[in-house]
Amino acid sequence: MPIVTIQVTREGNTPGTDAVTADEKAQLIKGVSELLRDVLNKPLEATFVVIQEVEKENWGWGGLPVDAYRAQKALKTGQTCMQA
């Protein structure tokens, strides 16, 4: 019985959103479950997927809060950083 935990920062991927949408979560659950079925022959009904959204202020990256890390990296590269 596989249990997969996916952790993402709580922020939207499109303007005006501040969380992962229900549709995006459904796609993650389906994709991860199908991957385990296809690679490890684990039945869909035996696979559990848990999605945890973490507030950005509770997410650290490179020794910094995620927003500070992204800002620092953007300054170094001259572009916008991808989300965690």
Automatic annotation (TrEMBL):
<dbReference type="InterPro" id="IPR004370">
    <property type="entry name" value="4-OT-like_dom"/>
</dbReference>
<keyword id="KW-0413">Isomerase</keyword>
<dbReference type="GO" id="GO:0016853">
    <property type="term" value="F:isomerase activity"/>
</dbReference>
<dbReference type="Pfam" id="PF01361">
    <property type="entry name" value="Tautomerase"/>
</dbReference>
<dbReference type="InterPro" id="IPR018191">
    <property type="entry name" value="4-OT"/>
</dbReference>
<feature type="active site" description="Proton acceptor; via imino nitrogen">
    <location>
        <position position="2"/>
    </location>
</feature>
<dbReference type="InterPro" id="IPR014347">
    <property type="entry name" value="Tautomerase/MIF_sf"/>
</dbReference>
<comment type="similarity">
    <text>Belongs to the 4-oxalocrotonate tautomerase family.</text>
</comment>
<protein>
    <recommendedName>
        <fullName>Tautomerase</fullName>
        <ecNumber>5.3.2.-</ecNumber>
    </recommendedName>
</protein>
<feature type="domain" description="4-oxalocrotonate tautomerase-like">
    <location>
        <begin position="2"/>
        <end position="67"/>
    </location>
</feature>
